[in-house]
Specification:
Blueprint lengths: L2 H10 L2 H11 L1 H13 L15 H10 L15 H4 L1 E6 L2 E6 L4 H8 L8 H22 L5
Antiparallel strand pairs: 1-2
Helix pairs in contact: 2-7
Length: 145
């Protein structure tokens, strides 16, 4: 490949589009990471999502899921919220959502902190996105990996 041809290919590369494609193609990894946090009752800061007000309900929820710890909110009862999680892209930024009818109510009650990845999960997913973006870049430049 000639230098002018390589330069031409480089000029056509849009890293932001590659990033969006990498996240979209690996959406399941982000959702699995978020689900793993929620089941442990953790929010994006590594703190707890919240505490149940009723001790009786806290014990009931603990009998269903011990990973969150006694009294800690895990946002799971039927599992529908978890099973309907997705990512939406707006202006090159991604946001978690769930298609359940009560998602907005839960978001209003607990805020945005449950709907982001903690530092550990950000690091892990960043590696996946980096690898996917580099692969796209190599393919875009028609170089072998």
């Amino acid at each position: 490949m000639t230098i002018p041809k390589l330069n031409e290919l480089i000029q056509k590369i849009n890293i932001e589009d590659m990033f969006v494609k990498a996240v979209t193609e690996n959406e399941h990894i982000f959702i699995d990471s978020l689900t793993g946090q929620l089941i442990k009752g953790e929010d994006s800061t590594g703190g707890k999502i919240g505490q149940y007000a009723s001790n009786e309900y806290a014990r009931y929820k603990y009998s269903l899921n011990t990973q969150a710890g006694l009294g800690n909110v895990d946002l799971k009862l039927s599992g529908d919220l978890y099973h309907n999680l997705g990512l939406v892209e707006k202006s090159k930024k991604f946001f978690f959502f769930s298609t359940v009818s009560y998602f907005q109510k839960i978001q209003n009650q607990y805020g945005l902190k449950p709907w982001g990845l903690n530092d550990e999960n950000k690091t892990e997913t960043s590696e996946v996105i980096k690898d996917s973006t580099l692969k796209q870049l190599r393919n875009g430049l028609r170089l072998q990996s």
